[in-house]
């Protein structure tokens, strides 16, 4: 299989491609705004003594050399990509009606035009936000289908979740698989056995780096007021008590559900100078907001507990997730493992930590890569329709999506 890694960012999809095919990409294509993000993946290839040409397409376009890329790369079987998804992201600041019209989505269109119009692989596959599968993504899907139809491609929008691919992280995503021809490919359904969070984290080798690095300035929680409060009530089983209420719950949410907020406020008051000033302000803020029937938003010493799996690894939660058995937050290597990254993959500095969240986990991408390879080899069926919607989360049959 000859393939191209397009806008690889930290490399989650590209590394999966290499794991499944056993070969590195014949080339890497991207755009200048993402060079800084791609560097970590390029650094890893260099560490492995792998050389692949890197093309900045917008610069080549300015020089009138964009079509030279096709001759330099040659015929390819597939291309994978991770175009920015903040336009459709639920974590973004855009309102529902604005997501489909966000200018950020233009990277998806630009990439699709280049891949299907210039490189023309048998399959072009890319991952994006879960909303690409929903009504909020209608505008974007319609535009992608229009581009695909124009260039002679058919496609399937495949919704799945990392939790179904062997990693204890609930991370729904949408994959777009565009195949040369006029019939949409039908993918296999996946539901792999997933280890518990405790067992999964034990897989990390002792010599792996970044186990002493954290996304927060306060990684150790033993002296937090909330931990002292809960240990005073429940001893070392305080985690079990929180998770008996809900499998995914933050410390303030737990106290609110149990009617303990005022009791906790009194506990902090008795600590006097031993209590962090922000903790004193935060509990007063929470009680006031809830009393007004409003929500609250905090960042200081908020603990997020998960039973069997974590929710999507994103920047904000990386500062909150508590280790399932130790009195600390999750470290960077643990987050990297939850994203399926190799144990010898390194991040250079704290500003790189946020780049970790920009991909779907390698493990999920490996299964999608297997599907792409099987499609190319003729080992998958095709629909009678040009475009399909396939939901791996609900195990629904394919849903026909017609452009006109």
Descriptive overview:
The protein is α/β, with parallel strands linked by helices and 404 residues long. The protein folds into two domains: 3-195 and 360-400, Vaccinia Virus protein VP39 (Rossmann fold), CATH 3.40.50.150; 214-330, no CATH class. It is 36% helix and 14% strand. The strands form three sheets. A nine-stranded mixed beta sheet has the order 3-2-1-4-5-8-6-12-13, sandwiched between helices. A two-stranded parallel sheet has the order 7-11. Helix 1 crosses helix 15 and helix 6 runs parallel beside helix 7. The chain is elongated and about 75 Å long.
State the main characteristics.
single chain, Rossmann fold, 2 domains, nine-stranded mixed β-sheet, two-stranded parallel ribbon, disordered C terminus
Write a compact overview of the structure shown.
The protein is of the alpha/beta class and 404 residues long.
Number of helices: 15
Alpha-beta content class: alpha/beta
CATH architecture annotation name of the largest domain: 3-Layer(aba) Sandwich
CATH homology superfamily of the largest domain: Vaccinia Virus protein VP39
Shape: elongated
Q: How many distinct folded domains?
A: 2
Q: How do the helices and strands follow one another from N- to C-terminus? A: EHEHEHHEHHEHEEEHHHEHHHEEHHEE
In the predicted model, the low-confidence regions spanning at least 5 consecutive residues are: 89-94, 400-404
Mean pLDDT figure: 92
Please give the largest β-sheet: 9 strands, mixed
Lateral strand order in the biggest sheet: 3-2-1-4-5-8-6-12-13
CATH class of the largest domain: Alpha Beta
Oligomer classification? single chain
How is the CATH topology of the largest domain named?
Answer: Rossmann fold
Based on CA atoms alone, the radius of gyration comes out at 23 Å
How helix-rich are the residues, as a percent range?
25-40%
N-to-C span: 34 Å
How many beta-strand segments? 13
């Amino acid at each position: 299989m000859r393939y191209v890694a397009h806008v690889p960012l930290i490399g989650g999809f590209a590394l999966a491609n290499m794991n499944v095919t056993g070969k590195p990409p014949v080339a890497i294509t991207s755009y200048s705004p993402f060079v800084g993000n791609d560097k970590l993946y390029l650094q890893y290839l260099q560490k492995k003594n792998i050389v692949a040409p890197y093309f900045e397409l917008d610069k080549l376009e300015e020089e009138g050399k964009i079509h030279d890329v096709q001759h330099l790369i040659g015929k390819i079987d597939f291309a994978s990509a991770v175009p920015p998804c903040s336009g459709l992201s639920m974590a973004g600041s855009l309102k529902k009606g604005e997501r489909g019209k966000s200018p950020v989505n233009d990277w998806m269109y630009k990439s699709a035009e280049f891949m299907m119009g210039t490189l023309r692989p048998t399959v072009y596959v890319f991952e994006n936000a879960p909303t690409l599968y929903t009504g909020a993504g209608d505008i974007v899907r319609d535009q992608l289908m229009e581009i695909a139809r124009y260039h002679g491609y058919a496609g399937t929008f495949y919704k799945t979740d990392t939790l179904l691919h062997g990693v204890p992280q609930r991370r729904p995503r949408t994959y777009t698989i565009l195949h040369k021809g006029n019939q949409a490919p039908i993918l296999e359904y996946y539901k792999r056995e997933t280890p518990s969070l405790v067992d999964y984290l034990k897989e990390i080798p002792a010599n792996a780096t970044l186990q002493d690095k954290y996304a927060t300035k306060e990684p150790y929680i033993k002296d937090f007021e909330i931990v002292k409060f809960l240990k005073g009530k429940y001893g070392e089983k305080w985690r079990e008590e929180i998770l008996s209420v809900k499998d995914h719950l933050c410390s303030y949410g737990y106290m609110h559900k149990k009617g303990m907020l005022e009791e906790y406020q009194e506990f902090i008051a008795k600590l006097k100078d031993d209590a962090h000033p922000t903790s004193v302000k935060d509990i007063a803020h929470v009680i006031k907001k809830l009393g007004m029937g409003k929500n609250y938003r905090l960042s200081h010493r908020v603990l997020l507990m998960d039973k069997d799996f974590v929710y999507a690894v994103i920047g904000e939660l990386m500062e909150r997730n508590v280790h399932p058995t130790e009195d600390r937050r999750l470290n960077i290597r643990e987050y990297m493992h939850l994203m399926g990254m190799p144990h010898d993959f390194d991040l250079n500095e704290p500003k790189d930590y946020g780049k970790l969240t920009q991909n779907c986990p390698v493990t999920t991408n490996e299964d999608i890569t297997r599907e792409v390879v099987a499609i190319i080899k003729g080992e998958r069926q095709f629909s009678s329709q040009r475009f399909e919607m396939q939901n791996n989360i609900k195990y629904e049959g394919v849903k026909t999506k017609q452009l006109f």
